[in-house]
Amino acid sequence: MRNAYLRMAFLAMAFVFLSCASPMAAQEIGLIDLGTLGGLAGDESKAVAVNESGQVVGYSRDFNGLRQAFLINPQDTDGDEIPDLWFRDADGDGPNDLMINLTIGESDACALGINNSGQVFGRRQIAGTAYAYFLITPLDTNSDGLPDLWCQDNGAGRNGLMVDIVDQYGQYPRVAAMNDPGQVVGINFSSSEQHAFLWSLETGFIDLGTIDPFTRSIAVDINNRSQVIGSSFSIGSVAAAFVINPQDGDGNGKPDLWFQDANYDGTNDLMTDLGYLGGNSSVAADINEHGEIAGTSEDAAGVGHAFLWTETTLITDLGAPGGIWCEAVAINERCQVAGYDFHDGDPLGSDYAFYWTKADGIIDLGPCGTYDSFAWAMNKFGQIVGSTLPKWGPLFGDYMDPFIASATGIDAFLWSKKYGMLELAGFEYARETQPFDINDSGLIAGYSSCTGKYTPHAVLWKIHNTKKGHDVIVDPVDEVKEEPKIRVKFEEVTESGETTLKISPLEISPPAGFKPIDPAEAYEIKTTAKYTGQIEICIDYSSLKVAKEENLKLFHYHNGQWVDITTSLEKEKKTICGVVFSLSVFALFELDVEAEGFQEPLAALVPVGEDPPLPDVAFKKGRTLPLRLQLFAGDRLLTDADVAAPKIVGLIRIGDAVPIDTYDLDSGEANDNGPYFRFSDGNWVYNLGTKRLSSGTYKITLELPDGDRVCAAFVLI
What we know:
By secondary structure, the protein is an all-beta fold. The chain has two helices and 54 strands. Residues 14-25 and 391-400 have low confidence and may be disordered.
């Protein structure tokens, strides 16, 4: 998990530069007090980061009043594999039993980030104002594949799992970000010229160098592909944003080379300059797993513009709506960008948070009354957390540093395109609230000052998309796939919670008489909300391949079998709905129609693509042939109440008549229903007139109600 506040504090080195909302629609936001390590004796804590497992890190004062790094490994109390407990005080003594002190024996420390492997990095005081950054790699003591031990006394009263991050001279660089493989990047101040660096337990310290002609550099982020971004600069000079695409020097499939200087000119050949927007300075801020980069670059007039950089489009100007300065701070896996935009002379505020997509461009999130708004972090679904600050307040670097003392007047917000800006409420009468991080499950780590006090407590906000109420509508989104869009409507929700959707390949066999649509997928819907009454499930199938819409059915997998729950199908809206009383796996199927016929003495029907067999007898030219067949879905005979009529889509002469016996059969008048069969006495019937046909061998092709085609042959003499 990478930390926005650290990246922005690092950007400040290279670049000199809310009570306004209420919950709406189907979202509710719950507040969890994470408590402290020390109870009343150490009544102060801040949560700084949260990973995708819901593990939270930050700092808390202990019983001695010292600040210590902490981790909370949440519990799953109801066995649904979703963490639901972050605070427990079994003996009532005050401290949070689930809060682990990571830095026993230290005098001042804070955890600053946690990745999805459970590794934690942070900083600890070593002397005066000097700090060392550290990495903690947890152990899996019960061999279940999950980390469970983050602190182990080394016998000297300190954490033996904690390793200091040092350069080649034993000095302490500053860390900005960490990826899931446990590689950290930042800036090394101990060298004569400050340089960006990379460090891991496997590689040790690596100086990343600079871009010519600059003498200094800063690394601000690293993704899970080990691509590093940052800026190269000189004191009093311009800056150049860069990306490093590491090489696999030993061919083992893992990157291991971040610095290369083939011509010995002192610069890093692997460091790519991202370019400029007409000016002479640019700064990279964030990189996603696709290698797409967000940052800021000056135009020819010195105005900062947010930019997006990709390997194919290179640097793209995202604009500066306020005309003064626009800074990107985050980019997610869907190439959505968040940041803030400075508006000079606006009486309602100076800085507005913004959100950008390729389709919408920049959306200003606006001021909050007389307060500025800043975006700090964004998850993969475009949910943004940020702060509203008093106009002309201190620079963001102070507010985003968890060590800085609290200050009155900060409110927290959550923004999404669907619900707009919502307040992240803190404790009652809180003087300030501050979010630091948001994960893809909608868990938000931060702090709120306690009621009537300046003292902060670490908190976790949980976004509940399923609120308490009547006829509650939820549009859950899969973590990977945005389509199909599914809407869930609860008749009555008695306790708010989170409703989730997981789309995966269909592995359960379809019900008899049905076949999967394309793609064949299972839609697993779960909720932590408590509800009563029926639930309506509606699926927009416009993005799916459906052969015959009228044959589409919505099924629910319940008690080990598929149940058809279809209640409505609106072709115009491409929407199918059904009603259930419980949630599990849903899927869309079409009728799988099988045809049996034609009846003797005609030849049997075969799928198109196969050569149709010839009948045993020929028919006299000019007679009317009785074509009869039956349609089945599994064992069920299909009537005109079940499906649309099959139809003739082809009749061609494929050769001369063959010398076989002739059968004199005439069923009377030819069909008067165009190409369509009619249903009569358990059969689908078509009287085919042959008066206009010449002698020969013919192939007739039918389209069945599910879109499949079959054919048969007959001979006229």
